[in-house]
Task: inverse folding
């Protein structure tokens, strides 16, 4: 994957949030040799609704549903695992692919 700091070994979705955007999901390319990660996309609620429509969604939050769909497609495309530690509940403490 162009611009990644090393060989991509997984795609990961992680929650983040702030007072302006509420909760959103960041898609990351996880690398090794050297270990690291590269941000691929930030999925805000508005973008998720535009991508998926008004719902209902497979996951409770539209950002999670869109990130899950796109993250799985990317992982399949590159032949690597996809990880989303807490797709049902927004949390900073969700388990990560690599601690």
Result:
């Amino acid at each position: 994957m162009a611009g990644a700091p090393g060989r991509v070994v997984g795609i990961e979705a992680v929650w983040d949030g702030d007072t302006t955007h509420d909760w959103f999901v960041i898609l990351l390319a996880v690398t090794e040799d050297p270990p690291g990660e590269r941000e691929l996309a930030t999925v805000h609620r508005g973008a998720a609704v535009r991508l998926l429509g008004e719902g209902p969604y497979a996951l409770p939050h539209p950002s999670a549903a869109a990130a899950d769909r796109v993250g799985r497609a990317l992982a399949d495309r590159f032949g690597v695992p996809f990880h989303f530690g807490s797709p049902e509940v927004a949390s900073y403490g969700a388990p990560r692919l690599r601690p």
